[in-house]
Amino acid sequence: MPYRIVVLAKQVPDTKNITGDAMKEDGTVNRSALPAVFNPEDLNALEMALDIRERFGGSVTVLTMGPPPAAEIARQSLMRGADRAALVCDRRAAVADTLATAYTLGCAITSKLDGFDLILCGRQAIDGDTAQVGPQVAGRLGVSQVTYVEEVRTLADRTIEARRNIEGGYEIVQAQLPVLMTVVDTANEPRPPAAKLLMQFKKARTPGEIEQQGGNFNAETLRSRNLLIEQWTIDDIGAEAEQCGKAGSPTQVMKITSVVLTAGEHKVVEPTGDGVRGLIRELAEDHALE
Amino acid sequence: MTEHSQHNIGVLVFAEQEEGVQADVSLELLSKARELAAKLGKKVAAALPGHNVGGLAPALITYGADTVFVAEDPALQHYTTVPYAEVVSDIIRACKPEIVLFGASLIGRDLAPRVASILRTGLTADCTDLQIGDYEDKSGSYKDLLLQIRPAFGGNIIATIVTPRHRPQMATVREGVMQLAPPDAARTGEIVPVDVKLGNTHELVRVVERLKAEKKVNLKGASVIVAGGAGVGGPDGFELIRELARTLGGEVGASRAAVDAGYIGKEHQVGQTGTTVRPKVYIACGISGQVQHRAGMDDAGKIIAINNDPGAPIFSIAHYGIVGDLFQVVPMLIEAYKQK
Hints:
The complex is a heterodimer. By secondary structure, chain A is of the alpha/beta class. Chain A has one domain (3-243): HUPs (Rossmann fold, 3-Layer(aba) Sandwich). Chain A is built from 8 helices and 13 strands. Chain A has helices spanning 40-56, 71-80, 98-112, 133-141, 195-201, 207-213, 219-224, 273-285; strands at residues 3-9, 11-13, 36-38, 58-65, 84-88, 118-122, 144-156, 159-166, 169-176, 179-183, 230-232, 252-258, 267-268. Chain A starts with a strand and ends in a 5-residue tail after the last helix. By secondary structure, chain B is of the alpha/beta class. Chain B folds into 2 domains: 5-203, 3-Layer(aba) Sandwich (Rossmann fold), CATH 3.40.50; 224-339, Rossmann fold (3-Layer(aba) Sandwich). Chain B has helices spanning 24-40, 57-62, 81-95, 106-119, 238-248, 256-260, 291-294, 326-339, and strands at 9-14, 17-18, 21-22, 43-50, 67-72, 99-103, 123-124, 129-137, 140-152, 157-162, 169-173, 190-194, 205-212, 224-228, 251-254, 281-285, 302-307, 320-323. In chain B, the strands form 4 sheets. Chain B has a 7-stranded parallel β-sheet with strand order 7-11-6-1-4-5-12, with helices on both faces. A 5-stranded parallel β-sheet of chain B has the order 15-14-16-17-18. The longest helix of chain B is centred in the N-terminal third of the chain and has 17 residues, at 24-40. The N and C termini of chain B lie far apart (66 Å). The interface between A and B is large, with 79 and 88 residues.
């Protein structure tokens, strides 16, 4: 039976490359100033979805929520083999904490898809590192969740069997569909886009991108060639503005302190035999080393 | 479930256990809970779901709980999300705590967001500090909020997050971040059994098999840790780190950068998303010292930093700093120690 698989993916600032320019006064990141990447563990989730489709049959739909540049995530997903990809893009959904994000994604899933059997997402995003959106989407939709999944062992009828990480080991669980699973980076090596799909979907655009870029692209033409990436506002997905974005976020950033490193009072030890011997002697005298 | 708001709970701690063994992080959070609750003029409670776990309740009282809510049911023997989330949410709804704390263990990070979703409230993960303070924004002034403090965005900032208009205020904290206060055998408290009402939800996810590997790395218990970072350059470089650790009778640690690069296994990782350690001696070799690493080791007795970049942030918290090539300095340390 074909399984309807949804993958939740996020475009994230590459947090290894943040400079001072990228932080705004109010403590939020100025995303457009940073190189943006496909959140690594969401790629693992997409890979797992494609693998499930190969082994057991079904369709893979990728949903992403973000500002207009996040269309890139939808496009890359199509290049990697997703059957369908869509972008939820609305200023009112911006500056959302995990609960508001989960609410918005939940609305997209229930209103725009013809049901689902499996939802996959990365364990966590490299900007927030919270690992909360997956479980909170599952909570919003009232479905089971299985986190830290490394492998799907079997999928038969309405039962999926997966191996997941637990403290100091692993667990094999069986879950009844529908279920949401979060996927860890050790699960797989995401496949690069196949050359054919890369060429085919290079031209895929959202309506927002068409409007912005003008010129050669025409929405109707793209749609007829299956190259129009769906783009939805919160109205399109039946989400209430008060529950999206900053308005719908129970947590608020009170303040941000830049980490300013002052030279501490440390004892300088010369990188010489004498210097190091002196250090060992001091540590031994202090009984720090025995 | 019966109303329990008369208990005047300031802070509720999720008492995590596995196969009848209480998780250390829950005890650490009880110590912190006492401090936070005192500032609120309120009490501390623990929520203890499981099967045949009632015997753990008295110890929770000695570690700081005024009330222990024990929720027993065979379906709770092994942790699965929905039954635990339903039980903990029920306890929260009945006793209405201001604050709920979970350890940021694999269980805590699976459970806490689900509970926050059920209760439609705010949750902050991996807090490195918790305080009580006041907050003001366009919609009002708020007193005695939980200030949820954590590094973010690659460690370049420390964020203070609040949940002004929703309750409870929820946070997760990793093991070793909060200090464990000694238990007080003379403390008294109340053990309250709670009714567990589960739908058929507990049948939806079933644990078929569990395998726990023997713990080979004990960073928490080590009195000396020699840690390698990106500067070690590769798995081979870690041989030198291991040799120094062996010589000093210590354990091998690593920064997230070294682990992510595949130089060494994750079980050696020290830092906000690894293990928090408090050894007597911490020798950081080729570690730049990002905030998230420092959060995991800045309480060490003596910190020795070896890095060939004099501007490396690790030097700002080191007691001893050696600017040099670790591949030359570490052998000197080994030699000097053997000859002392």
